[in-house]
Amino acid sequence: MKTQNYVDVRGSLPAVPPPAAETYVVHKHQQPEKRPRLSLILLDWSCRERFDTLDWLQRQDVSSDDYELLWIELHDRVVPDALAKADLVITCHQGRPYHKHLGYNIGLLHARGELICVCDSDAVFPRDFVSSVFRSFYPHGAADPIPLVLMHHELRTSFTYPEGLADAEDLKNQDKWKWWPLVPNAGACMTVRRADAIRFGGFDEDESFRGYLCGPYDLGWRLVNAGLPEIWHHTDCVLWHFAHPDPVGANGFAPQLRLLRENAYPHVDMHALTAVEAFSSGRFQPRKENRRIFDLRMADRRIGTPFEEKYSAMLGPAGFPKMLVARMHLAMVADIYFTALWGLVTGSVRVGLRRLLGEKSYLRWRNVFFHRLRWVLPASGDGVIKEYRGFNLLQHNGTILGLPQILGAIDPNDESQLSHPAIARGPSVREVKRIIDREDLLSWVAVSVERCDGYNILRWRYRFYAVPEAGGPVDLCRAEHREQPGILSSDSLEAVLAQVQDMREVGCARHG
User: Fold this and answer.
1) Cα–Cα distance measured from residue 345 to residue 339, given in angstroms and rounded to the nearest whole number
2) 149 and 108 in contact (C-beta within 8 Å)?
3) How far apart are CA 367 and CA 378, in angstroms?
4) CB–CB of 455/432 below 8 Å?
5) 46: phi > 0 → left, psi -120 to 50 → alpha, else beta; which?
6) What CA–CA distances, in Å, run from 222 to 137, 196, 281?
7) How confident is residue 345, by pLDDT bands cut at 50, 70 and 90?
8) Kind and range of the H or E element at 126?
9) Model confidence over 160-213: pLDDT tens digits?
10) Average pLDDT over residues 448-460
């Protein structure tokens, strides 16, 4: 199954395309020296009739340095109020139907806070809104935010926005403002840690999320599927939303066809069908992930060994091409049946020779046959044993050995020499080749890199070692040799050379 090896599979893969260019324009990007704790993402698609939300969010009872306002316009309208009062203003120049999640992701990528909040950009916010977020994510003054999906309720009314409203506390009067009965609105206001949003792929950019009926709840529900708790903040801190002058089928207005067409995909109780499907099926990654968020998420992984790293970057988000998988599957099935048939034939030959010659004569004949003619009966067409990827393949006493050429001459009768961890062993040429392809055996061989101030610099097992020239030979495969006091080591050549330089300066100081 040669096509199943890493080298062959990697060589068969097409090049991973770079991220597609995103079309958006940054009109303002204010970056204070102090990094905020919260980034509020306010979305518009050239539909907002008023922009007093920015004023309410500037009147919070915490320092303005603790949060930032990001205004994301999905089309191309530049709002003067946003330019004056927001910290970041971006226009996305989308067509129709617009795609909110693309705008959310642009906000997520530009956000500087530990927390991101996607909220209604024409709501009224109480003065303690931001502090209510901080109390939830930083309980008892914690230094780091806890993992959480925080939702805030939003109360609605049939009244349009009153002129001259100056104090949000006045909106708590139910009799005066006739707020509708409370219904949880998962799309109104959601706050999560930015790291969690990136770790689980950001906002889903699947085409089914185009149009009006979508929101941050898709990401929130996927985070809940991944184990984060969802908490709805107490109603002592809510958002208030007044009716639009020309809403969709409310307050006696006939719904406009243009607005109705913003419903681009089926929904369940006005929640996007794809989001409900993800929530109900337990999915916690998006159908279509933003490529820049994918790169951020992948770069944040912590992988234990360089051997595994080669598998971690073979592909892009699209995965293995279907045709490659089909070809590998056919090769695997063919190899299974060929190996079984060949083993049956050669096994019958070996059994017959044993019976004909006797055990001792058979073993003597087999050794002569293998050693002098250098053919491998149970092999897969590899033929005469030869050099392979820096290894000499040698048959010895019925075993195939892969001897690294860098080690020089090795006596196959000396078991102490054959114990070196860089030597591959197997019953056939094919198996030894698989071991060489699969294992990074040559990393067990110390390679001289350079000499520096009385030290030999060697590379061994993904680390660099500075070995004093005056200390005699050192076998880095032995832990007691590596741990000698005079030997320096680090993960990078630059760090080892810096240690050598430090030792030289210490020596000069002593002589001085």
Assistant:
1) 10
2) no
3) 14
4) no
5) left
6) 19, 11, 10
7) confident
8) none
9) 999 889 899 999 988 888 899 999 999 999 999 999 999 999 999 999 999 988
10) 88
Q: How would you classify residue 332: left for phi > 0, otherwise alpha for psi between -120 and 50, otherwise beta?
A: alpha
pTM: 0.68
Query: Does residue 106 contact residue 39 with C-beta atoms inside 8 Å?
Result: no
Q: Which of 214-223, 247-256, 351-360, 424-433 has the lowest mean pLDDT?
A: 247-256
Neighbours of 196 (CB within 10 A): 19
* Sign of torsion over alpha carbons 93, 98, 99, 103: positive
Domains of the chain: 23-298 (3.90.550.10), 358-441 (no CATH), 446-511 (no CATH)
**Can you read off the two tokens belonging to residue 292?**
């820049």
For the beta carbon of residue 48, count every other beta carbon within 10 angstroms.
19
DSSP string covering 348-370, please?
HHHHHHHHHH-HHHHHHHHHHHH
Q: Which neighbouring-strand residues pair with 424? A: 402
Convert the pLDDT of each residue in 123-150 to its tens digit.
999 999 999 999 999 999 899 999 999 9
What count of other Cβ atoms lies within 10 Å of the Cβ of residue 250? 12
d(CA 33, CA 107): 19
Residue 387 has pLDDT above 60, yes or no: yes
**What are 231's two structure tokens?**
């908490």
The Cα–Cα gap between 508 and 512 comes to 6
Q: At residue 461, what is the residue type? A: R
Query: 37: how many CB neighbours lie within 10 A of its CB?
Result: 20
- The Cβ of residue 214 has, within 10 Å, a number of other Cβ atoms equal to 26
